[in-house]
Structure formats: structure tokens, C-alpha cells
Amino acid sequence: MFNWIRKQPLLIASLVTICASWQVQATALSQDISAAEILSIADDYRLEDAASKVVTQVALYQDGELDKTRQYEVYLRPNRESLVLFKSKVEQGQKMLMLGDNYWLVMPKSRRPIRITPMQKLLGDASVGDVSTLTWSQDYTGEIISDQSDITDADSEPTLQLSLQAKTAGASYQSIDLWVERKSGFPVRADLYLTSGKLAKKALFESGEREGQRRVVTMVLLDQIQTDKKTVIDYQEVTPHQLADKYYNPAYLSKNKRVEL
């Protein structure tokens, strides 16, 4: 069973930013703004509602060529709780449930949910950690370590660099280097490090518009261990949605093989 977990890409979407709603700032961040405030603003560009449905498409590239695509629906609510429905034909019926630092994989032919560890959720081309529990403002403490507001290159947006350290046992990565735009707090890129200190992935965030507001519409993950792999996650739809409590119960999910929401 764990061989299956190691081989099966857990492609969900780096979406699950469960945080309080913040008004995105259109003007420059104040000089005395704290790292915690910056992280909340950066999170808000990714997901602005505490309870949401996120429809995603994930494209996997091998050696620069498209290898496969997958579709997912992710249902989020506060306290780092999320349910992922696998929608592609080859994965139909699979579900992933995350409740804080507890994780279950539900297979269509299995009678019981499969409990997985925080380390196992990092496995795959786009890990569960990347797409469903990576919330900077809740899972990390931050420190501003560099202000690159003096950049003179006309094509470069001045940035702030923050150093993030995990504060929860189930955080996807032990540490993160995050760069945000100096004037708005929009996330530009992030370097994601494992507990060992090894750089695992580089994340690039692409800006777009959703319902008239600037948002992160695409995340590109560049694998730094398997350097021939790249993952592109497109957030096709993000809408407020309150899912019933019963769907956040692993026993219920195992007994009800078909969950159509």
C-alpha cells in the first residue's frame, strides 16, 4: 500500500490558504509593517475566503514536455481542514482528507481510510503539502531579512525577502524563503526546504484577475531534487463554499464511495 503512495502523484493544488480575509493593499506597504502582517496579505492573494471550493488543473512536465494532466476539487474550511476529490478518470473515486496534522487517503476499493504521515504527504510530483496545507500565516513564523526596494532595474519589482520557520508539526516544509512585492505584498517566489535543510522546490506565483481582484492564478513548482520535473497548477475556480461536517469524517468517506458535491 505504501508503494502505491510513493508512486501515485498526489496532485492537488496549493490552494489551501485558510486565513482571515484581508483587504489587499493597492499602495506601498508601510515601513513598520510586521512579517506576520505581510504573510497574511500574501496568503490573501491566494485564497480570500475561509471556507471555499477550489477547482484546479495540474499539468506535469517531464524534460520540458507535457506528461499528464489531472483535475481536482478542494474543499477548505478554517483550522487547516480540507477535503480533496480526485476528478480525473484514472483517479476517479480517490479522496484525501486533512484535519490539522492528521491525513487520510481514501481509495475506492478500500474498506478503511489509509492513515498517512506528514512525511508521506510530501511524496509525489505536486505533494499534498504543496497544495492543501501550505498556509504561511498559520503554519510559519516570519522575519524580514532583506528589503530590495533600491532595485534600479526597470523590469524588476522591488521585493521584500522573508525567512519562514515552521511552527506546526505537520507543516509541509521546515523553512521557506519567500519574496513578496514591496508595494503590495503579492508573493513572487518561494524556496521550499525540507527538515534536512535540503532545497526541495522552487515555487513561482503568476498574477491574474479573479472577480476584478488581483490574485495568484497559477503556481509553477520547479523540482530541485528531480530537476527534470515541473508542475503547473492552475486555479480555475475559487468560490465561497461551506461543506457539511460529515464530509470531514474519514469513516463517512470510506462508507460513501461516491461523493458528488
Automatic annotation (TrEMBL):
Residues spanning the signal sequence: 1-26
Record flagged with keyword DNA repair: no
Matches recorded under Pfam families: LolA_like
Keywords: Signal
Gene3D superfamilies in alphabetical order: Lipoprotein localisation LolA/LolB/LppX
Keyword DNA damage (UniProt): no
Ranges of residues in domain Uncharacterized protein TP-0789: 80-254
Name of the protein in question: Uncharacterized protein TP-0789 domain-containing protein
